[in-house]
Each structure stands twice: as C-alpha cells, then as structure tokens.
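This section describes the prediction task in plain terms. A model, or a person checking by hand, is given the sequence of a single protein chain and must write out its three-dimensional structure as a string of tokens. No templates, partner chains or ligands are provided. The sample shown here is typical of the held-out split.
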Amino acid sequence: MSSQPLPATFGTPKDPVPLLQKRVELLEAEVKMLHQRLLAAHRELASVRGQDFQPALADLIADLQRAEAVRQQREQELLEVLQQVEPPPSDPQPVRQGHGPRPQPKLTIVEQIHELEAQDCRCKACGGEMVPMGEQFEEFEEITVIERQYVTKVHKRRKYRCACNGCIVTAPMPPRLIPGGRYSLDVAIQVAVSKYLDHSPLERQSREMERHGLVVTSQTLWDQLEALARTVEPTARALGLKVLAAPVMHADETRWPLLDGKSSPWTVWSRCTPQIAHYTILGSKSTQAASPLFRGFEGIVVVDGYAVYEALARAGPNLRLANCWAHTARKFAEIQDNFPSQCRPILEWIKALYQVEAQVPGSFPGDEQAQGLRSSLRDEFSRPILRQIYDWACTEVGLPASELGKAVKYMLRRWEALTVFVTNPLVPLDNNAAERSLRGPVVGRKNHYGSKSKRGTEVAATLYTLLETAKLNHLEPASYLRTVAERALRAPGTVTLPEEFL
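The expected answer:
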C-alpha cells in the first residue's frame, strides 16, 4: 500500500460519514502492513547481531501492544466524532414557492399531441429512423383560452310524406325565445349573465361582440333580455310567494336610477330567505309603496331601523319586526372616538353576542339539532348579556342631543325588536343577509346606471331574482336560468324552483 499521506481535503465533501469510515479502513490496513515490516526488520537485525530473536521479540511485542492501545484510543476518538456528524438528507427537494398549481376541476381537458418534424426523425448516433415509443409521452399542463365564437346555425327541418301523398309532415322547430327571431336562447342567457351578474352594460357587450364578428345593437340585446324575462317571470313570481310563506324573512332597500329624464330615483326592495332572494323595483320607498310587498305575510321580518318597517308592523298585526344588532353596533362604533370609555363596554357585549352565535356549527339556520343548540346557548349566555346591555343603557344615557344619547335612544326604542332573536332560533342577530343580497344591484347600477324605463326595472328585478337565488343555492346561475327558460318555452307558465336541483 502506498505510504503517501492522504490529501488535506479528504473527508470534507458534502457527505462526510462514508468518507471518514473509508479513511479508518485505510489507516487500519496501513498499520497492519507497518507491523509486518517492523517484525521482519527485528528478525533481520537479530540475525545480523547473532542474538537470540525470542527476547528481542518479547520486547517488540510489548512495544506493539502499547502502540495498539494508542491506536484503539485514537479509533475510539474518531468514532465519537463520526457519531456527532449528522448525514444530510439524500436528494433534498427544493422548497416550493407560493401555493403551487391551483386545481381546475371545471375546465374541459383538451389533449394536443406534438410530433417531431420529418427532418428531426433521424438518430444522431447512427443516422437511423426514429419511430414512436408506443404510447409514451412527456406531459405538462397549460391553461389557455379558446376565443369566443358566434356562428350562424342553419336549422334544416326535414319533410316527410306518405306514399299516398295524402299527408306531408315537417320536423318540429325547437322552442324559440322570440318567434321568428334570429338569436338563440344561449345568446339571451349570455347577455343576461353579463349584465346582471357581471355588471357589463349592453353597449359594452355590443362592442365586445363586434370584435368577435357579430354586429348587433344594444337595442337588439335588450329585446333578448325582455323576451327572456317575460318567459321566466312565472318562476320569479313563485319565488316571491315562497318568501311570503316563510316564517322569517329579511328585507332591505336601496336607490335604483330610472334614466327616463324626468323621474327621481326609484327603489329596489329585497326580500330574502337563506334560499331565495326576491327583488322588486318601485317608484317610491314610502310605506304606501312597500305595503303590497308584505301583504299576507305572517311572521318575522329582520330589518334595519328604517321607519317604514315600523309603520308596516303597526298596520299589520301579524307582521313582527326583528331589528339588526349590526346596525346598532355601527351607531356606537361611529362615535367611539368621542366617547371611548362609554362605548367600549357596549361594543364588547355586542361582540360577545356574536361569539355565542359562532358556537353553532354550519350555516344559518341549520337543521333541528343546530337550532336546538342555538336556543340553549342563547338562553344560557345571550340573555345575561342582554340584561347587562339594558342596565348599561338605562344608566349611561348621555345628553339627549349628544351623539351618545342618540345612539342609546336608537337602541332602547327598538329594544323589543332587538331581543326577538332569543325567543326564535330562526331569527339571526343582524340583517346582513339582506345587505348581501343588494350587493349585486348596487354594483350593477354603478356600471350600467340603472334602467331606462319601467319595463326595464321589471326585467332587472326578474333576472336579478333568478340569478341571485341560484347563487344562494350554490347552483351555476347560467345553467339554472337556461333550465327555467327551456322548460317555460316548452310549456308556458312552468315554474322551476331551485330545490328541484338539490
């Protein structure tokens, strides 16, 4: 074995343990070889001197034993060093940045096979012809867009006759949205979803369609919307009746522009339940205008502090109000900077009411088990909190004309309606459901500025009703609207409710 010293870098690469172990083996082999050489040298020296080899051998063995003890000590020290060395993980994986590829289960998968060009089908090693390796591929995913396309579909209705020539029959035409019209139901569905769900004005849609080859005016698009709304109106009316039959509903209202050049802004009224959002657009937000919307309703209406609802409750003995704690909290949050010590406890108590509600799992109102749990939690925790709030309001009244005094007065005037929720597990703490239902119309009026006529308000209310109701039931809005329209075209007046899909 070579006696050349090991290089200084030996044992220092990124994987040290195997290399150090190898070094130990080499050192042991080298020590054994040196022992053999030393023994041969002592024998030769004793022969030259004419000495007896055995006593000299005994001295040599003693020296070797001492050297072996030193070697073992050094080996033990090396093993201790090896035990302290932690080998790095093999083939560490690079740390992924971000959330990684997002699953797209709703996208249609389209395969595209890439082939070699003819001039590339020659082996670079031997020049032979390259042939496909069976069905082996290297795959990668790429999300792309297929440009929207409008086509003219020619319907050919085949004619049939009898051999006797006494009867000729033509295959029936599929139901059409506008008799004699040129545009399919799919075009009307797309226009409705774009305007009332994606808030795209008709003029903007017209320009976009022209970029894709279809030249059409906004008036033509409106004609499709009007015909579609007329077809699905029976379902929208049926949804309104279901809201009136519910034990608890939410109600709210907001401004809706009527762009006829002479009318003041109209009002879009929302009446909703956890499964239905129904809209009506009226020329006023007065008690007289709102009264027909609640005629025949016998239950609880969750509302904000608008005086019209209080007038309706006084006029109708079967209509009971439940006021909104979110609106009440907002009154105190708005003045908290001016009255920090007074507002802090009331806001903490209102927060505690919401924490009690959060202990019931699932969506509101849930099944009978969830409603039972909600009732027991409200009896145990919410009622004591309400007593604390009432005692605080009776002592921390503030000056009558001050902001704090007005906020306290707002709450005490509505105390009975604010505490209805503890007696009925179907009543929520707030009216946020109605406010969420108006989010679509509010964003829509900022983009397409409302309606140009009374009929425009009716169309908007009908289509908002169907599209927003589909969203509440986790249905694809365009698919639901198409199903409702197709069934109504086949049998006019047909009603298609969301529960049919659940």
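For orientation: Confidence is low (pLDDT under 50) at residues 1-14.
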